[in-house]
């Protein structure tokens, strides 16, 4: 079974939400809201590639997907429904713009116009900054092909536009997804 235009994926661990935590061998639910995007599962396994697809992604790769792919929602009458990405059982359609990163053979790669930046600690300055991370700056972790062509490498310190960072947890680490055109400078 193949889709003409979409990848067919399933959520990793078969769960639509990452809203549990295991403490002392017991599993606890830490959030019951289906609207909270922070707890949506964003990790998917590729079951099938689109018909005629000739790109880099293969069956079995892991994708980092948009938070709405696996979510439930309530319709106008309050009935619980799956979103537009739902296909059947635990299978979902994902188009080329609904994923940002893919893992192949143990290595992550940025997809399309996206890159991933690690937030950095607040830098010492004369200005009092009451925040956890330095605003609008970070360390490049997964540059895309365009940024690589501009000689931006993993480990480079970069600046990015305001309101451009979209937080993800990748391998237990907080990273920001940023569009490549929102990377404003290499510091």
List keywords for this structure.
1 helix; 2 domains; 6-stranded antiparallel β-sheet; 7-stranded antiparallel β-sheet; 187 residues; single chain; mainly beta
Task: Set out the fold topology.
Layout lengths: L6 E5 L8 E4 L2 E4 L13 E6 L13 E4 L6 E3 L5 E3 L3 E3 L2 E4 L4 E6 L2 E4 L3 E8 L11 E10 L2 H5 L7 E4 L5 E5 L2 E7 L3 E4 L1
Antiparallel strand pairs: 1-4, 1-9, 2-3, 4-5, 5-10, 6-7, 8-9, 10-11, 12-13, 12-16, 13-14, 14-17, 15-16
Give a short summary of the structure.
It contains one helix and 17 strands. Helix content is 3%, strand content 45%.
Characterization of the model:
The protein is 3% helix and 45% strand. It is an all-beta fold. The chain has a 7-stranded antiparallel beta sheet with strand order 8-9-1-4-5-10-11, with no helix packed on it. A 6-stranded antiparallel beta sheet has the order 15-16-12-13-14-17, with no helix packed on it. It has a two-stranded antiparallel ribbon with strand order 2-3. A hairpin with a 2-residue loop joins strand 10 and strand 11. The longest helix has 5 residues, at 145-149. The termini are far apart.
In order across it, which strands form the biggest sheet?
8-9-1-4-5-10-11
State mean pLDDT (0 to 100 scale).
93
- Beta-strand portion reads 35-45%
Low-confidence stretches: none
